[in-house]
C-alpha cells in the first residue's frame, strides 16, 4: 500500500533540535486516503490461493506447528480439510480449540509460533501461511452460520466473569457450552478487550472484533453488563457469595511511567490511549497526530502506535528503544512492517528529559546506552536530541491489584506482580480462577484464549463434582 505521507525528515544528532511550535492536528491527509491507509493490511486469500497454499502442507504426523500453538489447534487437520473443500469442518477444528480463531488468524505473531515451526522453513524459508488459511476457514463459517455450537442443558450453576476480553469471553463461551449461566462484568462500553481497544485498526478493520463477539455470544447463556468495574461497582467478596465460581480476566490496566522530567507536558500521552482512540474513531482522519512523533518502547504497542501515526499523516516518526533489535519484544516481522511504513527505529537510547516550549513538548533528550554483562541497558554519558511535537509512551503495561484488596491486604496471592495461578488457572482462593494478561505468563491474545478455556473446564469439573 502506498502511503500519501510527506517524506520522513531526519532530526540532526548532537544539537538541540526543537520544534518552533506545537503541531498536532487532525486531517493531515484526505479522508479517503486515511480510509485506504486503515483498510485491511493483509487481504484474505482467494479460494484458489487457499487451495494452492493448503497443498504446500506436508500434513506432518508429529506436527511441530501444533506444538507451537498455545491453543493446540490441529493445524494439519484443518489445512487438509481446506484442501478437500471442507471449509466448515476446517473451521470447527480451529474453533473447538480456539473460539477466537478469527481474530487470532489476524493478530497472532504466527512468525514466531506455528509458522515459525513449520518444516517448510528448513527447505524454502517460506512456511505454509497457516494464519491466512485459518482466516479463510473461520471467516467462511462466520459468514454462513450463526453459531455451530449448542448451549448445554442448564445446570443451574452461575459463574461470574470479570472482563469481556479474549480470556473472559473464551471462558464464558466454554462454560455456556456446558450449560452454566454466565454473567460478564465489563468496565468499558464495548466487549472485546484488547481485540477491540488495543490492536492496530488495519489489523482488524470493518468492526471485525465486534462482529466476532456477537457471533460468539449467539450461543446464549452469557449476559454482559457494561460499565461495571471491580473495586468500584462490586467487589470480589460479593461475587463469591452470589456466584458458584468466579473467573478474573482483568488484563493490565496500568501503564508504566517514563520517570523523567517533562512527562506531564502537553503532547505526551500513553500509546495505548492513542491506539484506543483510533480504534473507536468512526472517521480516522479526525484523530489528531503530531507532525514529528517519537514513540518510546520496543513492543508491539510501540509498533502499532508508530505505524498508525504514519498512516494518519505524521511526517517524521521514530521509535526509540533502550536496547538492541534482538531484545525488542516486537517480532522481527513487526519491526520490518514499521520500517516499511516509513518509521525509523533507533536502538540503545533511553529518554533523559523532555524539552518544553510554551507548556508543550518540543523535543526529547536521549542518553545513549549499552548492555552490561548482565544484559541491562546502562548509560554511556553521550546524549542526543530529537525534535517532537508528540510523544507516545509504550514502555509497558502493569497489572493493577487495587481492586483485589480489602483493608489494605491483597485477597489473592501474586507472582511477578500478577495473579498467581496453578495449571488449572486456579488462584489461591479455591473458587476463583484467573487468566490472560493479569496472570504471570505470555502476553498474547492466543494465550489468553487458552487460559479462559482451561479455566472453564476446571470450573465445570469443580461445579459438577
Total number of distinct structural domains: 3
Indicate the CATH topology of the largest domain.
FAD/NAD(P)-binding domain
Report strand order across the widest sheet. Answer: 4-3-2-5-21
Give the count of helical stretches.
Answer: 16
Large-scale geometry: globular
Q: What's the rounded overall pLDDT mean?
A: 93
Q: Please compute the radius of gyration using only Cα atoms.
A: 23 Å
Could you give the distance between the termini? 56 Å
Estimate percent helicity: 25-40%
| Total beta-strand segments | 21
Broad structural category: alpha/beta
CATH class value of the largest domain: Alpha Beta
Features:
465 residues, alpha/beta, FAD/NAD(P)-binding domain, Fumarate Reductase Iron-sulfur Protein, Chain B, domain 2, 3 domains, five-stranded parallel beta sheet, 32% helix, disordered N terminus
Amino acid at each position: 500500500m502506498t502511503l500519501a505521507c510527506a517524506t520522513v525528515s531526519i532530526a540532526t544528532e548532537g544539537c538541540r533540535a526543537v520544534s518552533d511550535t506545537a503541531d498536532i492536528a487532525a486531517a493531515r491527509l484526505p479522508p479517503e486516503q486515511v480510509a485506504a491507509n486503515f483498510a485491511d493490511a493483509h487481504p484474505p486469500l482467494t479460494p484458489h490461493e487457499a487451495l494452492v497454499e493448503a497443498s504446500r502442507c506436508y500434513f506432518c504426523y508429529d506436527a511441530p506447528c501444533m506444538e507451537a500453538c498455545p491453543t493446540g489447534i490441529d493445524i494439519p487437520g484443518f489445512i487438509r480439510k481446506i484442501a478437500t473443500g471442507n471449509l466448515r469442518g476446517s473451521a470447527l477444528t480451529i474453533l473447538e480449540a480456539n473460539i477466537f480463531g478469527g481474530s487470532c488468524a489476524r493478530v497472532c505473531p504466527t512468525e514466531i509460533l506455528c509458522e515459525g515451526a513449520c518444516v517448510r522453513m528448513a527447505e524454502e524459508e517460506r512456511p505454509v501461511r497457516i494464519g491466512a488459511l485459518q482466516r479463510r476457514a473461520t471467516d467462511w463459517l462466520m459468514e454462513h452460520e450463526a453459531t455451530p455450537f449448542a448451549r448445554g442443558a442448564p445446570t443451574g450453576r452461575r459463574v461470574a466473569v470479570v472482563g469481556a476480553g479474549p480470556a473472559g469471553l473464551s471462558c464464558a463461551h466454554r462454560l455456556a457450552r456446558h450449560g452454566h449461566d454466565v454473567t460478564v462484568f465489563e468496565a468499558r462500553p464495548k466487549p472485546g478487550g484488547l481485540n477491540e481497544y488495543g490492536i492496530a485498526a488495519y489489523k482488524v478493520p470493518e468492526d471485525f472484533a465486534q462482529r466476532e463477539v456477537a457471533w460468539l455470544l449467539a450461543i446464549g447463556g452469557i449476559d454482559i453488563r457494561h460499565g461495571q468495574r471491580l473495586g468500584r461497582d462490586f467487589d470480589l467478596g460479593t461475587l463469591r457469595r452470589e456466584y458458584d465460581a468466579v473467573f478474573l480476566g482483568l488484563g493490565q490496566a496500568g501503564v508504566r511511567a517514563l520517570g523523567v522530567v517533562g512527562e506531564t507536558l502537553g503532547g505526551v500521552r500513553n500509546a495505548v490511549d492513542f491506539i484506543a482512540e483510533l480504534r473507536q474513531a468512526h472517521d480516522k482522519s479526525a484523530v489528531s497526530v503530531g507532525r514529528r512523533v517519537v514513540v518510546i518502547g520496543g513492543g508491539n504497542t510501540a509498533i502499532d502506535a508508530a505505524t498508525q501515526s504514519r498512516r494518519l499523516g505524521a511526517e517524521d516518526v521514530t521509535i526509540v528503544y533502550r536496547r538492541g533489535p534482538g531484545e525488542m519484544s516486537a517480532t522481527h516481522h513487526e519491526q520490518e512492517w514499521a520500517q516499511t511504513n516509513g518509521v525509523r527505529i533507533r536502538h540503545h537510547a533511553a529518554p533523559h528529559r523532555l524539552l518544553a516550549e510554551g507548556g508543550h513538548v518540543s523535543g526529547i533528550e536521549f542518553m545513549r546506552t549499552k548492555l552490561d554483562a548482565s544484559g541491562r541497558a546502562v548509560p554511556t554519558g553521550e546524549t542526543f536530541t530529537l525534535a517532537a511535537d508528540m510523544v507516545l509512551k509504550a514502555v509497558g503495561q502493569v497489572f493493577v491489584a487495587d481492586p483485589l484488596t480489602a483493608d489494605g491486604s491483597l485477597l489473592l496471592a501474586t507472582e511477578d506482580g500478577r495473579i498467581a495461578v496453578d495449571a488449572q488457572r486456579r488462584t489461591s482462593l479455591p473458587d476463583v480462577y484467573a487468566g490472560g494478561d493479569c496472570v504471570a505468563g505470555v502476553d498474547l491474545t492466543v494465550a489468553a484464549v487458552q487460559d479462559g478455556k482451561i479455566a472453564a473446564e476446571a470450573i465445570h469439573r469443580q461445579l459438577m463434582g
